[in-house]
Design goal:
The protein has 246 residues and is of the alpha+beta class. It has one domain. The chain is 14% helix and 28% strand. It is built from 4 helices and 8 strands. Strands 1, 2, 3, 4, 5, 6, 7 and 8 form an 8-stranded antiparallel sheet that branches. The protein is globular, with a radius of gyration of 18 Å.
């Protein structure tokens, strides 16, 4: 069980060939999260990095959300050399991570919650990871980087069980899922998807105990995400049932 939790904290479990292809395509997503201690605030926070992008028919992206599914502010952007790499550092007492992989019209999705565990006898708490959703071999029959680009940010893949039944996604994370679906189709990505900057005139300050989402982050972040606030007004694209794979 402990091994599974540790693996879930590292993101989607991909074979070496998939990791090699992503590396060859120049897509550098960083799904790992870590537990960090803030001395001034006297608390532990979760650190993650929004990262990734797409190249041709392959894409991978990692983004973050609040527990209720609303966007989260980043601490600061990362000016990376090249594209499809690191975009921004995110810190919060609790983070929900979304990790998505795309190959053509097939999608993999892992949504996990990360938080400090209970500390015993003053020791450093463990990093607790809980899987909220796992979507395998999802399908979206749209070309979001081409002819169907106008729908990017408003649609998401459809996932099925091994019995061929549709698997319901957590509704509170549907906007985030739509946004990350757009991200794994964002060729040469050099910006954030779903996570956003602090309000103008106020830099993120995590050393005073004010880390994490701003009280007005939900409205401000949605306004800054290329009109992704409209994602709930357009239905998801048609999906084709999958044949069960042993």
């Amino acid at each position: 069980m402990k091994k599974n939790r540790a693996t879930d904290a590292m993101g989607l479990r991909l074979p070496r060939q998939a990791l090699r292809i992503l590396n060859e395509r120049g897509i550098f997503a960083q799904p790992a999260v870590s537990l960090q201690h803030q001395r001034l605030a006297r608390r532990y926070v979760i650190r993650g990095v929004a990262s990734g992008g797409a190249a041709g028919d392959v894409g991978r992206y990692v983004t973050f959300a609040q527990e209720d599914g609303k966007p989260v502010e980043y601490l600061h952007p990362v000016d990376a050399i090249g594209v499809n790499g690191l975009h921004a550092v995110v810190l919060a007492p609790v983070l929900v991570r979304l990790d998505m992989l795309r190959k053509g019209h097939t999608y993999e999705l892992l949504i996990t919650r990360h938080a400090p565990g209970k500390a015993d006898n003053g020791h450093r708490p463990p990093l607790e990871t809980k899987v909220l959703f796992r979507g395998v071999h999802g399908r979206l029959e749209l070309d979001l980087a081409g002819r169907d680009k106008a729908q990017a940010g408003a649609v998401s893949p459809t996932f099925y069980s091994l019995a061929g039944e549709k698997v319901a996604m957590p509704e509170q994370f549907r906007p985030a899922i739509c946004s990350i679906t757009k991200a794994v189709n964002c060729a040469g990505c050099s910006h954030c998807h779903y996570v956003c900057a602090p309000p103008k005139g106020r830099a993120a300050n995590t050393s005073t105990g004010k880390a994490g989402p701003h009280p007005n982050a939900s409205a401000e972040c949605l306004e800054s995400q290329d009109n992704d606030e409209a994602m709930n007004t357009v239905p998801s694209g048609e999906a084709v049932p999958l044949v069960e794979v042993a």
